[in-house]
Amino acid sequence: MRCWVLVVLTVLLAACSAEPPPRNPWYDHLRPSGTPLPKQGSGSLGLALTEVPKLAALADGLTGRCRGVRTLNREQVSRLVPPGVPEEVAAAGACQDGHGDLLVVLVKDRTPQVQRRYLDALVRNRTLWARDDRMPLFGNGFLLVSANPANPRQYLLAGLRYLRCGEDIGRPMVRTPADLDGCVFADERLTQ
């Protein structure tokens, strides 16, 4: 009996003292060291990324699948970027390897307008809420649209968030007030 107790204690002790798996350093890439972030709005999502190559580096660092970027022209932006957003796009690209995640830099200081236009498009067409291929993850001055169902988890761990509004924000989740009244940036997407 004592032998079993010693074995169990040894196993428990080994499990408790094991090192946790290494954390991806890109998870902290958007969080400035020593500078507190605002408590609400797109600024609360971390550092602003204002160039497609920087978004590509972030996407590649998080997923390992964005080493090359294809620049998108206005027609492609209108077709691929979520509704309501194309009017506010400063630059856009798509990862050439992997599944082709969309990388979108927004016009400076226009994030609230993007949120409003996107929300208006969702109100007009509720089926857009459930489309995996068009659900953007918002950052500070940019958004990413993942074409791979596995990538959003990596993006969420880095601090990007979905925009959710209205009564759908009642469930428990990590959330921060968005730039629009009645909306939040959330770590969970709507599944209607």
Topology, pairings included?
Elements: H1 2-17, H2 52-63, E1 69-71, H3 74-80, E2 89-95, E3 102-106, H4 111-124, E4 136-138, E5 142-145, H5 151-157, E6 162-165, E7 175-177, E8 183-186
Antiparallel strand pairs: 1-2, 2-3, 3-5, 4-5, 6-8, 7-8
Characterize the biggest β-sheet: 5 strands, antiparallel
Report the structural category. Answer: alpha+beta
SSE order, one letter for each helix or strand: HHEHEEHEEHEEE
What's the shape? Answer: globular
Name the poorly predicted regions: 4-17
Biggest sheet, spatial arrangement of strands: 1-2-3-5-4
Strand content: 15-25%
Residue-averaged pLDDT, rounded? 78
Can you give the helix content as a percent range? Answer: 25-40%
Measured distance between first and last alpha carbons: 54 Å
Computed over alpha carbons, the radius of gyration is: 20 Å
Helix segment tally: 5
Overall number of strands: 8
How does this model look, in words?
With 192 residues, the chain is an alpha+beta fold. It contains 5 helices and 8 strands. A hairpin with a 5-residue loop joins strand 7 (175-177) and strand 8. Mean pLDDT is 78; it is low at 4-17.
